[in-house]
């Protein structure tokens, strides 16, 4: 248990126990609050505007928009900042992350839930989505993050481990960006630990971690999901994922998009 790093005002109880889940790859520090978890708190130190690591305001805006679209995302109960920290507090959703261990007979259903999340998100009205996450923006962000020294070089795929920011940038610059002709509302960090599944009914319990959601190419999500599933094939979900994810993935219709992702070359589809 740790001391609360922020004031508890208007939500929760000041006597609730706080547990720090650590600093995450996103740059957020995540806390679980309550005996039975009632709230999750994500904090960051103040960030430079060109620092594109986790941003509580972006997460809160996207959570609210996705909730208004009827998606099961956590309710935002506080968004605030002081001199040391900025934070967003959400109400805890039930369910367990799809990334956990599931019994063999449950796995197909779990991966179907994940695939359904992709279909539902990607069916949202692009014209009404106020958030952009287009390739040109990402390339620009990568460049400004590199200039700031704000790239997390510990969070690269194994084939790029030990590379400097400059080497990664040079590699990226050699690639020709593919045409973005399949724009949808993307999650932006579509990994199995960001989808919560009800362990009783094996249905969707929640979608988390949406600060990078926005209009982007469908492959942004699909490439990351497939990489994530293939990389940690702890549950034997890889073959299930190939079957359940949208047909475009199975047929590897647009390999250029998959290759664009920093995990290029690691996505092998049958
Ligand atoms: N409102 C919530 N309800 C239930 N669980 C939550 C909630 N918010 C966060 N969690 C749990 O905390 C974990 C980390 O939260 P989140 O994914 O939002 O942070 P993150 O900074 O992106 O972490 P990571 O880099 O590991 O993805 C989630 O995978 C989930 O297990
Ligand atoms: Mg997450």
From TrEMBL:
Keywords: Antibiotic resistance, ATP-binding, Kinase, Nucleotide-binding, Transferase. The keyword Isomerase does not apply. Coiled coil: none annotated. InterPro entries: AGP_Transferase (IPR051678), Aminoglycoside_PTrfase (IPR002575), Kan/Strep_kinase (IPR024165), Kinase-like_dom_sf (IPR011009). GO terms for biological process: response to antibiotic. The keyword tRNA-binding does not apply. Residues 27-245 form the Aminoglycoside phosphotransferase domain. GO terms for molecular function: ATP binding; kinase activity; phosphotransferase activity, alcohol group as acceptor. Belongs to the aminoglycoside phosphotransferase family. This is Aminoglycoside-O-phosphoryl-transferase. It comes from Micromonospora echinospora (Micromonospora purpurea). The lineage of its organism: Bacteria, Bacillati, Actinomycetota, Actinomycetes, Micromonosporales.
């Amino acid at each position: 248990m740790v001391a609360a790093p922020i004031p508890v005002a208007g939500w929760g109880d000041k006597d609730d126990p706080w547990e720090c889940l650590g600093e995450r790859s996103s740059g957020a520090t995540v806390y679980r609050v309550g005996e039975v978890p009632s709230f999750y708190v994500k904090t960051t130190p103040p960030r430079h505007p060109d620092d594109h690591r986790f941003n509580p305001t972006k997460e809160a805006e996207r959570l609210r928009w996705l909730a208004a679209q009827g998606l099961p995302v956590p309710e935002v109960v506080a968004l605030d900042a002081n001199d040391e920290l900025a934070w967003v507090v959400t109400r805890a959703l039930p369910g367990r992350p799809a990334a956990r261990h599931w019994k063999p007979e449950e796995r197909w259903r779990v991966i179907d839930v994940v695939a359904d999340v992709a279909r539902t998100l990607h069916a949202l009205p692009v014209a009404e989505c106020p958030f952009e996450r287009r390739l040109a923006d990402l390339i620009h962000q990568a460049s400004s993050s590199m200039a700031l020294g704000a790239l997390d070089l510990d969070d690269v795929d194994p084939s790029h481990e030990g590379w400097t920011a400059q080497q990664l940038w040079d590699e990226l610059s050699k690639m020709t960006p593919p045409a973005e002709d399949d724009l949808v509302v993307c999650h932006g960090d579509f990994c199995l630990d960001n989808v919560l599944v009800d362990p009783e009914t094996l249905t969707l319990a929640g979608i988390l971690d949406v600060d990078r959601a926005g209009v982007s190419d469908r492959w942004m999500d699909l490439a990351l999901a497939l990489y994530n599933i293939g990389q940690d094939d702890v549950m034997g979900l890889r073959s299930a994922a190939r079957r359940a994810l949208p047909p475009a993935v199975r047929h590897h219709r647009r390999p250029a998009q998959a290759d664009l992702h920093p995990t290029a070359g690691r996505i092998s589809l049958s």
